[in-house]
Amino acid sequence: MTTKTLAFIGLGIMGSLMAKNIQKAGYTLTVHNRTKEKAKALIADGAQWAATPKEAVAHADIVFTMLANPTVVEAIAYDKNGILPNMKKGALWVDMSTVNPSFSKKMADAARNHQLRYLDAPVSGSKVPAEKGELIFLVGGTQEDCAEAQPYFDIMGKATHFMGENGQGSAMKILINLMLAQSMAVFSETVHLGEAMGLGKENVVELLLNHPVAAPILQGKKNNILNETFEPEFPLAHMQKDLHLVAQTAFEHHYAMPLANAAKELYAQAKQHGLGNQDMSAIFQWLK
């Protein structure tokens, strides 16, 4: 068992389950979250509570963060009671948040300026894979730092893909979420057209999901569509945020993405009309 000291910041739907799996593997964590309530189960199982990010990271060899968006990451990074001013020199910050590639590069530069190491390591997968320890890690940074974090990636996930320099992990993640968002929207629209033509929803869903034209990941949303219940595994608001990151990245690279921007506005409309906290598959409900 390693003697490394670990900290985990961000205990939302995903982070709480990822931290739990590290704990179940026998490691002790120091944890912090904006609301302590979400840390209660981890604390009950032996995690140490830190009232501030500063307290969480002060003695950590590796700090894991799983936060909602770049704004939250940046705020917690630079604050005087935050990550960068208070981590031990030479320690490793592993940011598993979904952020845009240029932001990851900015955080990597900031970490180096504080004599720290940094990996962008966003995950592919939602609530159920997080619970089962079956996430897929997409990592940007150095191979040496990736190797240091690998034992913990192996606990939280089933595969790790080293993508290259800082920012490349985040780059791959937004591409995956772009495909997911568009696939979910197209599938939803197609099912609704089938119903409008008099075909039964269940029959349309079954046939499409067992046809090569459907993305395999949509199988996991089958019951959501059939039952029209959208308990959040991956909140729709997070998907809209990720599509915004895609659009921002495309702008930075002088690349037009008309389909991606149409999808972004579709998810934004759904969020605006109260579906943001439901699962991203609730785009089916919005398109009905």
Automatic annotation (TrEMBL):
SUPFAM superfamilies: 6-phosphogluconate dehydrogenase C-terminal domain-like, NAD(P)-binding Rossmann-fold domains. The keyword rRNA processing does not apply. GO terms for biological process: organic acid catabolic process. Residues 167-286 form the 3-hydroxyisobutyrate dehydrogenase-like NAD-binding domain. One of its GO terms (molecular function) is oxidoreductase activity. The active site is at residue 173. It comes from Pullulanibacillus camelliae. Keywords: NAD, Oxidoreductase. Belongs to the HIBADH-related family. The lineage of its organism: Bacteria, Bacillati, Bacillota, Bacilli, Bacillales. This is NAD(P)-dependent oxidoreductase. The keyword NAD applies. Residues 6-164 form the 6-phosphogluconate dehydrogenase NADP-binding domain.
